[in-house]
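Notes continue from the previous slide.

Worked example: a multi-chain complex. Inputs as given:
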Amino acid sequence: MTAAQTLRIGDLARLAGTTARTIRYYEEIGLLPDGGARMAGSHRLYDEADLERLREVMRLKSLLGVSLDELKELLAAEDARAALRSELSRDDVEPDRRRALLIEARDLLERQLELVRLRAADLDRLEADLAERLGRVHRKLVEIDVARQPAVAET
Amino acid sequence: MTAAQTLRIGDLARLAGTTARTIRYYEEIGLLPDGGARMAGSHRLYDEADLERLREVMRLKSLLGVSLDELKELLAAEDARAALRSELSRDDVEPDRRRALLIEARDLLERQLELVRLRAADLDRLEADLAERLGRVHRKLVEIDVARQPAVAET
DNA sequence: CTTGAACCTTACGTTCACGTAAGCTCTCAA
DNA sequence: TTGAGAGCTTACGTGAACGTAAGGTTCAAG
């Protein structure tokens, strides 16, 4: 147990660069688990793992540009991994169960990867286009500057 | 003049994969020009260039994940390019003016490129992370399968 | 010239992803 | 024990990005 539930919602928000409201909202829509199995009314408590999870959520949200609902689907992979780890800590795991969890995690990871690669490819194309346009503009600028003052340099 | 203003808003929407409402909205907030300098009340008309512009807007929106307001800023580059081309078609362009437009286009293109490259780098990191996780899951699966049936193969 | 489909403007409605306020409660250090 | 600061729930508010409906107009085909 590297980290006992020691973070309060405000700490978690600050560490992740977001707000408490957002965390509660994510919990409300099922994107995050119920902050430390607390009894309703008392304070939510989190640990390092929760922080990582939240950061992952924010990263995927910003990079993939998907809705929180779609993100929820995608994040089932993280849940599978978590379940796997917790079951794995005990030694009485049935291999069939273990194998099923692994396969689930694999499939979901593959879906994520495909999405990421598609977007990365699109972004690369965009980058190439922009770079080419920039090149053309540069050449025209040089052209002009040469025509104006055959012996000057930059902007 | 490759393309006279021949597309109606419905055609443009279909070709770009969006809706007429969206196009009107983009015009309303100044993201797109006033559909063919028409007199208010009559139909908007577009050409191939408008289609390209709209597609570029949609591409940047989806890939950069910026607000339409920020996008408007970024797209000033396209406007500079358009202005440049139209002034360039005449031959009486003052070099100073031309140079200024080119510099504007260059600076805005550079801003776009920086944004795109930052996101591309983030996406690459994400892809690497996911690939590594997937690799681990794969190895564990193989491990299990070997332990179960020393001579079988796949999923 | 007459349709009827597509378009026009205006304006209100909607969904998502939170922000904000109110009134109460929990926690922890003094 | 107590007080204040952070947290809790509930609920209404908000901005962005459109959707949708109403009532009138334009345009291309016949």
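Summary box: Strands of chain B lie at 7-8, 45-46. Residues 8, 19, 21-22, 25, 29, 41-43, 67-69 of chain B lie near DNA strand D (CB under 10 Å from a C1').
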